[in-house]
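Model it.
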Amino acid sequence: MSNRAAEIPTKLELRGDRIEVPAEQARAIIVDIFNRLGCHDDTSQAITDHLIDANLCGVESHGVMRVMQYAERMRSGTLGVGVRPEVRTTETGATMIDGGMGSGIPAMSLAYETVISLARDSGLAAVPIINTGHTGRHGAYADAAAAQGFLTICTGGGNHRVHGQVAPHGGAQGMLPTNPWCIGIPGGDLGPVVMDFATGRIAGGWIYAAQSAGALLPEDCVIDRDGNPTRDPQAYFDGGAILPMGGHKGYALSLMAELIGEAMLGPSSPECNWFLLAVDTRRFRQPEALQAAAEEVLADLRNCPPAPGFEKVEIPGELEREQRRRSNGVIAVPEQTWRQLMELSEELKRG
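Modeled.
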């Protein structure tokens, strides 16, 4: 294993090695896959660029391993191809993004563009996103929005009877989706601060990544169908569940997201509904003053003595940007995952 592959931050205990692939090489292969599946070329490029960037940032749970999952759903008809998201106005005058039952990555990109435009005019805006597939790594959208001066808060939930992945605190069966929360805000000298996490102890994507790579999961994240702890990703797919992050606190966050996504926004399909809020921070403080004040807070935290087992205190969002820089345009993918991706590519070329 090369130095670059060894430096990839991961929650997986791999049983094999990684293969290093230039991002541009991977991009050509993956764009071709989505084009052959029936996506518009601009949609294929948008999805591909988002997935590759996740790998470059060290978030492989939302990276190229998702290609196989997306392809399976596109082929089964549960995820639409040849569709584009649209901005709609509801009967009550609210602005809404309708994903058209297609990929969630173009839909979420449009949602952030739309809510920023609205918030730039009014100072504050909210946009729901419905009828969309998996929306990718939310930290990427929040980071870009914060770089433009916007605080964004996004959460998603709904469809819990179909996507019962996470056990409630005190429960032994998956009852809620992973219902993420993402907040981004302009930061200090090193850029925005971005919080992006699922409300389960592990994102569902890591379980798919472990299954794809033939890897073991971290301890104390997943239970099997009988409620016993397990590291085997297959045990999750055989009726197991993810445990809630932080016990009752993660459960409460997940429940709030579910009520926002389902009770407030209505039935969701094919995955969940999303609610995105944006605030133009310049309505409260000039960018230079905000950056200086944020840097004071962040510098104090960076200077905190590290606890045993840690090298330093990290700032949310900075790690991903630094990992992207270190990746230098090369992604390190588990060999088994890359083999599956190449097999899919060849299969589609054969027709």
